[in-house]
Design brief:
Its cofactor is (R)-lipoate. With 127 residues, this protein is α+β, with helices and mostly antiparallel strands. It has helices at residues 31-37, 90-93, 109-113, 118-125; strands at residues 8-9, 14-18, 24-29, 40-45, 51-52, 57-63, 67-71, 76-81, 102-106. The protein is globular and about 35 Å long.
């Protein structure tokens, strides 16, 4: 499993990456999560403009065998949904790059830094 060092992680297996402006971030599911879910066939997300609290559900990922909720890693506003998700298998193929789910304006960049780093996430997953 791939666990990039430059991301932060949640216990719910989402990742977040602050962009260069320091207040906008990309969010997706981890390689571990996509592997556990299996073949992803559909992703449903709340619309851009939705304001989320930390841990609030912002969508679902539907795989062949199950449906999993997606939880906001931090509070903020959804700015953009990944247009490539029309082909949901992109999440399986490239969860950390082309398979990102949403771009969000984070309410507190400090909250991102408080999430799990790569080493802590490795320990959580046993990888």
């Amino acid at each position: 499993m791939t666990i990039p060092e430059d991301l932060r992680y949640t216990k719910d297996h989402e990742w977040i990456k602050l962009l260069e402006d320091g207040s906008t971030a990309l969010v997706g599911i981890t390689d571990f999560a996509q592997h556990e879910l299996g073949d992803i066939v559909f992703v449903e997300l709340k619309s851009a403009g939705t304001v989320l609290k930390q841990h609030e559900v912002f969508g679902t990922v539907e795989a062949v065998k199950t449906v999993a909720d997606l939880f906001a890693p931090v509070a903020g506003e959804l700015l953009e949904l990944n247009a490539l998700l029309d082909s949901a298998e992109i999440v399986n193929q490239d969860p950390y790059n082309d398979g990102w789910l949403v771009k969000m304006k984070v309410a507190s960049p400090e909250a991102v830094h408080a999430l799990l780093d790569a080493e802590a996430y490795r320990q959580l997953t046993g990888e």
